[in-house]
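Re: export button greyed out
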Amino acid sequence: MNEIQLTGICAEIARLMIIYGAEIYRVEDTISRICRAYKHEEAEIYATPANFIITVKDKNSVPYTDSKSISGRDTNLDRVGKINELSRFICAEKPEAEVILHKLQQIKERKTYSPAVIYLSYFITGAAFTLFFKGEPLEALFGGLLGLVINFITVRLQKVNASAFLNAVVCSMAVSLLAVIISSIGFVPRFDKMIIGASMALVPGVALTNCMRDFISGDFISGIYTLTEALLIAVGMAVGAGSAVAAVIKF
Amino acid sequence: MDITNDIVIPCLCSFVACAAFGVQFNIRFKHLIAASVGSLVSQLIYTLLSINEFGEIQTCFISAAAVALFSEVMAKINKAPVNMYLIVGIIPLVPGGLTYYAMLALVMGDNDTFLDRAIDAFGMAGAIAMGIFFVSSAVRLYKDFRRHYRQNLKKAYKKLSSKDGRSVKKF
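Workaround output, generated via the alternate export path:
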């Protein structure tokens, strides 16, 4: 494998890992291990959640570099795990570039859960968290239905590449409005448990965890980036729910 | 104390909810069950500690540390990323209700209640973060030390064997 192929493959692997929701330490560790496997001990790697740069030098100290600008998130921890396995395989076997590209393609085409299962999971999340926050069974049912609404809106917004902040605002606003309407019609006496339960599906769990792990490993730029992302989503949820509830209560 | 309402239902709900939450991140079945057991563990510790009248902050810290440790161990066993278990495991600890009521107090103009609840929620979130921070740093330190000593051991072994080789040639 020559340097051009190596940098290209490393950049593609890093891009996929960041999009699928791996933390930066894992990305840098994986790429440096791959470079070491191909006898490039002095690879320069720079990764943040928004971009990736790698430079390796050949025997005559000629630098080869490749960079990626990364946008969009498609959290898929299953594929992160598979890329982890792929990197172990690369370090052990040191295969040719074609083999790695073929395996990467296989990982990219790995099956995800079908939309019906995802809808079901949102329903269960909403219902179970409504019960968890001491809601009644009927509230749990409506909490689950509001979870379906969240998934419906999220899928539509992802198609037009809306930001996570906008997604949080719109989802929590819709959920709050619907919950208030349901309770004002008279199905259930309170609306707060339903809103809390359904909104738990919007909690930025990946961003929070990644931010913590970035700070631990000393990647402060990435940590601040993901922390900002998590805080913005949390603020978006508060803005959406707050504006909806306040508007309804005032009238 | 009502065991069903105080312990069984929260733990069961967090288990089911977290299993469903993991599906959104495309975690496969084997890991999904392990991750949900992590959330069950954290929730069990949380309820047991809060029944025994520990403070909110201590409770959150200890349960987050427990789930972080559990995730590290599971990741080691299954050779999978730690995130897979950690993200799902800490979800039931997130102070969702408290944050909602804080926000509600803010929009209703009740600043005292808002500050009270927001400080509580902030403290709990910080405690969760610190719990994970604590355990993950300890694990990373352990790994770094192990790697360091292994390398040193290898070097020492090489030195030793090469010296032996020379000495054999000499005589």
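Chain B touches chain A through 45 residues (CB under 8 Å). The button fix ships in the next patch.
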